[in-house]
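Researcher: Please translate sequence to structure tokens.
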Amino acid sequence: MENELIKELHLTRMLDAPVELVWKAWTDKNLIQKWWGPTGVTNPTCEWDARPGGKIYIVMLAGKELGPAEGIKWPMNGTFKEVIPNSKLVYTSGALDDVDRSSNTFIEQEVTVTFEKIDNKTKLSVDLIVTKMEGPKAPSAIQGMTMGWNQQLDKLLNLVKALK
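Model: Translation complete:
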């Protein structure tokens, strides 16, 4: 029997902020750097070029809150496929074996983020489909994906509240 690793993730949040502010939090690399990654993670390297064909390269760094994982770096790369201002982002992302940008990608996914204006709030939906999983690191990374994305979106929510 195949293991029960998730291959799709669908998350929705209602943010008490206008679409334009939530969009900016998703497209301004200086803001992405503040909220990207799960709790206890910072982003010393953050390249986020939100335009079709634009590249993504982030190195997440585990902080002391993560105990024995402190100091571990989790690099990722990707490419934007579709960018519709204040409405939709579609990009690929991949978890890399190490910080060398040409290193092996052991997980790849396609992420679609939609922004829907409801009064002066934003309904944010994130749909993720895993398109590649290989190697010994993939299962543990996939197992932590739901928790990591939920924590990441909580950090986004807190940032947007602070910016409002």
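Researcher: Any highlights?
Model: The domain at 8-163 is CATH 3.30.530.20 (Alpha-D-Glucose-1,6-Bisphosphate; Chain A, domain 4).
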